[in-house]
Amino acid sequence: GGGGGAHRDLLARHRAVLPDWLALYYAEPIEITHGEGRHVWDAEGNRYLDFFGGILTTMTAHALPEVTKAVAEQAGRILHTSTLYLNRPMVELAERIAQLSGIPDARVFFTTSGTEANDTALLLASTYRGSNQVLAMRNSYHGRSFTAVGITGNRAWSPTSLSPLQTLYVHGGIRGSGPFAHLDDAAFIDACVADLRDMLSQTRGVAALIAEPIQGVGGFTSPPDGLYAAFREVLAEEGILWITDEVQSGWGRTGDHFWGWQAHAGNGPPDMLTFAKGIGNGASIGGVVARAEVMNCLDANSLSTFGGSPVTMAAGLANLGYVLEHDLQGNARRVGGLLIERLRAATAGLASVREVRGRGLMIGIELATPGHAAAVLEHARAGGLLVGRGKYGETLRIAPPLSLTVAEAEEGADILERALHAADAGTDGG
Ligand code: PMP
């Protein structure tokens, strides 16, 4: 990467005024200036195939005309109104999400981020159950507010343990290491369930279990199908709520299912689900869906000033309509299936690759060597491809916009194959 004077100046100003812990990718960080379809361009005019979708916020495609038009039209009428007045796009999007959620008698509350959605879910669960004790998964990520870091198992993203919640961390979200790593799927599930029972026998009145069906930041790790269904049986005995964090796994990304929890649906829908990231195709929408009985447990007037803004709701409606009309869940299944096979074949002989895993267009490549992902990212960037990193060991995260074509999947896999080889050879990422 080159880096012109203006670019270097922006980087220096970023470093001078923003927090040190707001880490940027790449030795020469990228300034994205525009996008189209599955591609983005940087300030120096370089074009990249985007296999990370701006950390999954661009669910469908960059600059999708349907979404751009809906946002422009709404912004042209009024940029923002208050949640104290009726809001047609908010009601319409809530109706669609309630119906898609699978939760009976569902109510929807909109926020502006996934963090705030999880905060709200915990507020509801704690209030409903009269307890601040919650269960979360090891290696989880749920956001960066004071309560959200308190349920984030991965310490790399959870800078404090002074949480207002009392959190107990459960086994099961990751398979690669830990005491149950050697077990087959059925025995793994049994062991995790026994561990959960043991933990619960030492507590009283736990409010909820919150879990990502596939851990996102944690490296796209999937528990065996059925794990959460088995957990659910145990939780139901004590009335403990099940909250599924669908911020990364929702909206058809996993191909086979619209929501990640549906791979574990043995005992029906969750009590609550949280969503964010992709639904606005880049516009800031988050939210919680809960059974009415749970949602309505708050004895207070409570609203979010920006949650449900007509502009972001217009983006969500246009985007969701596009996703459903064009069967992008089916596209994620088909193209994601091809991509994962291609990546497995391309990396089969590489000692530096431990595993290629995933569902649909949510694919993780676990590397064998600590610190190796940064080098692979540099080489991929030099080859014109953006991918992400994850934190279970050393993982590359691949989550392209759901409209990815077969040709683009093949092109990206080829670039990544070359990047992995180049990183192995230890050559300069350029
Ligand atoms: N939950 C999960 C599973 C996430 O991956 C993230 C974001 N990486 C969040 C919650 C927090 O969402 P936000 O960044 O919108 O606050």
Automatic annotation (TrEMBL):
**Entry's SUPFAM superfamilies?**
PLP-dependent transferases (SSF53383)
What is the required cofactor set for this protein?
pyridoxal 5'-phosphate
> Organism's domain of life?
Bacteria
| Transferase among keywords | yes
> EC annotation?
2.6.1.44
Return the Gene3D superfamilies for the record. Answer: Aspartate Aminotransferase, domain 1, Type I PLP-dependent aspartate aminotransferase-like (Major domain)
Which Pfam families does its entry note?
A: Aminotran_3
A single Gene Ontology molecular function, please? Answer: transaminase activity
PANTHER family in the record: ALANINE--GLYOXYLATE AMINOTRANSFERASE 2, MITOCHONDRIAL, PTHR45688
Entry similarity comment: Belongs to the class-III pyridoxal-phosphate-dependent aminotransferase family.
* Record's subunit section: Homotetramer.
Put simply, this protein is called alanine--glyoxylate transaminase
